[in-house]
Design brief:
single chain; mainly alpha; elongated
Length: about 260
């Protein structure tokens, strides 16, 4: 029986044909081809394919941004560390969508030794790039990222500060957890609530004065039921000391009084 059309093409040729379609500049077709390249790369994950890696890395300098974007995503799915140097160069791409794809690909390649290169994008003008970098720094798990994540608390961007809290929590280290406490005094209620939620399990008896203060914070995101004071109450219940019990009882009495006047 004659062979099917698909069997006539080698793996390299399939990627070459995909790149040719991407260069046509048709966005709808580009999205379909990019998905095909991701799926093909995922099937090859874990193997040794130097010809394919070289082909794709060369295409990272293509004039067409959709080519660079699709290739960066495919390299992430392929998971060959030989692509890391080329992806690092793409962090400076002129197109933010390509930059995001390169950042995510570097996470897939576990490029944890390149915190400094990633952190340079923390002040990128596009919010999505900044958020993606912060998520990457948390996912990669390199403690060298802590100072950069700490700096992000001073950026005038509420969502960036929330992303930083999540990233610091992912690092799960005494130093990174300590910085989460900075979020408890943030002027933006979402950041305070988010920090409180991520600090669950990290409070000790030394934090009783802080938790007592947090019982006064009734803020919460509109879509959440628990207030910050409710989370502080839950944290206090774990101790069972005379001091924590007294703090709780005082707060419960005050809550009852406040309820009577509502």
């Amino acid at each position: 029986a004659p062979s099917s059309k698909k069997s006539r093409y080698s793996l390299v040729e399939k990627f070459e044909l995909s790149l040719k379609v991407l260069r046509d500049g048709d966005l709808e077709r580009s999205q379909k081809v990019a998905r095909y390249m991701r799926e093909l790369a995922a099937r090859l994950r874990g193997g040794v394919h130097p010809d394919i890696v070289e082909l794709l890395c060369d295409a990272l300098v293509d004039d067409e941004w959709t080519v660079r974007w699709a290739v960066a995503e495919a390299l992430g799915w392929l998971q060959d560390v030989a692509a890391i140097p080329s992806l690092l160069r793409v962090l400076n791409d002129e197109n933010w969508i390509v930059q995001v794809a390169a950042i995510r690909a570097l996470v897939e390649l576990d490029a944890k030794d390149y915190v400094k290169e990633l952190a340079q994008l923390l002040k990128h003008p596009h919010e999505v790039v900044r958020e993606t970098v912060i998520e990457a720094l948390g996912d990669l798990g390199n403690m060298d990222a802590v100072p950069y994540l700490r700096e992000s608390f001073f950026l005038d961007d509420d969502f960036i500060r929330m992303a930083s809290i999540k990233a610091l929590d992912l690092l799960q280290n005494g130093k990174s957890v300590q910085h989460l406490f900075d979020g408890l005094v943030d002027p933006y209620v979402h950041v305070r609530w988010f920090a409180m939620k991520h600090l669950t399990g990290h409070f000790t008896v030394e934090h009783l004065p802080l938790l007592s203060e947090l019982l006064r914070d009734e803020g919460k995101p509109a879509w959440e039921e628990e207030r910050i004071c409710d989370l502080a109450y839950d944290a206090l219940k774990q101790f069972g000391t005379s001091e924590s019990v007294q703090i709780i009882n005082n707060w419960v009495r005050q809550e009852s009084v406040d309820e009577d006047y509502r």
